[in-house]
Amino acid sequence: MKYQDSIEQAGEKAALTAAFLQRHRLAAHPVNYTVIYEYINGHNDGLCQAIEQKLAVQSTFDDFVLAELYSQWLSPQHQRQEELSQQVTTMLGKLSGTTDIASEAVQHYLDVLDQALLGFDPNNANRSRESVNKVISATYAIKASQQKLKDQLDFSNEQCHALRSELEHLKKERQLDPLTGLYNRLAMQEHLDLWFSENPGRRIAAIAVNLDHFSQFNQDYGTGVGDVILSKVARKIASYVQESGLPVRSGGEEFLILLPDVDLRTAGEIAEQVRKGVEKLRFVSAKSKKTLPKVTISLGVTIYNTAENWHQFLSRSSKVLLEAKVRGRNQVATELMLAN
Fold first, then answer.
1. Contact indicator for 288, 193 with CB cutoff of 8 Å
2. Is pLDDT at 195 greater than 60 in this prediction?
3. Shortest CA distance to 189 belongs to which of 120, 258, 88, 235?
4. Closest CA to 64 of 179, 169, 190
5. Is residue 180 part of a domain?
6. 308: domain range?
7. Closest by alpha carbon to 233, among 258, 201, 206, 210?
8. In a shared domain, residues 131 and 63
9. How far apart are CA 313 and CA 228, in angstroms?
10. Are 167 and 189 in the same domain?
């Protein structure tokens, strides 16, 4: 068993988990239940901190958010990354121990050499021979220790290359949304941190995107078709983002485009291009071969404020996006509209 709980303790945690799910109107399927049970248990510090931050800003909990939390803190990929981290720690420990031994051997060799030089006497062959033998013996000893150090360094170098490659692969997997291939919110936060570390006063425009009436679309045609639509819309959105920008899947049918060093007006123009591009998409049912209804998006354009955290930023972006929906959907709203 993972936890050594009594029946009473397990029952209490299960009840608290069920209460949390009910309070936030979440289905008690395995992913949701596992994430909240782990949170109630309190042993996964990273997961607990992530949930506490969302609770503090009254962030919405839904299946997408919990699936993202599971991917970041409980998935096999995350566990494998922890294992790799432990392997690196072990490797460095072994290397450090070998280095210490080699350092001691070098110091011993120097001490023997000093004594031998002092004991070398041209007029005393036996004493000189004894000193030379000590130097020879110490030389063999240091050669052996240096060979062990070299072997350990070679082995560690091979391990480093293999571990670095696997870590990069796992890091990339953790940063990507599996359905759409866009970046997830973890990657968004890391990019924001990097951008602001390079330039604390950097201006970053954000375009929040939401598919119009998508819940009804899923009800009419099924989530399988809905996932295909999401994936294709995501690719279309990403096609308008240059290499310096970041396309993110921020929610179930929600996306976010981050554009560093772009002003509000330019971001609004890009948002309009994205809107028109998605509106031109046409979808056909693979089974019935019938043309599906046209898919449109609503967009909200904001400028990131460095004084707020990303939960607050997402909330503010959602308010601007809501303005586009209030005005009739399939259009772009900006912060200036809210000010007027």
1. no
2. yes
3. 258
4. 179
5. no
6. 185-339
7. 210
8. no
9. 29
10. no
Question: 0.70 cut: is pTM over it?
Answer: no
pLDDT band at 89 (very low <50, low <70, confident <90, very high): low
Confidence band for 214, pLDDT divided at 50, 70 and 90? very high
Tell me what pLDDT residue 1 has.
43
**Is the pLDDT at 209 greater than 90, yes or no?**
yes
260 phi/psi in degrees, rounded to 5: -70, 145
The per-residue DSSP string of 72-116 comes to HHTSHHHHHHHHHHHHHHHHHHHHHHHHHHHHHHHHHHHHHHHHH
CA angle 305, 317, 320 (to 5 degrees): 120
**At residue 189, what are phi and psi to the nearest 5 degrees?**
-65, -40
pLDDT tens figures, 242-264:
888 999 998 889 999 999 999 99
Are the beta carbons of 212 and 298 closer than 8 angstroms? yes
Domain end call among 175, 203, 218: 175
CA 238 – CA 246 distance, rounded (Å): 8
Q: Is the pLDDT of residue 26 over 50?
A: yes
Q: State the total domains in the chain.
A: 3
Q: What is the C-alpha to C-alpha distance for residues 173 and 184, in angstroms, rounded to an integer?
A: 10
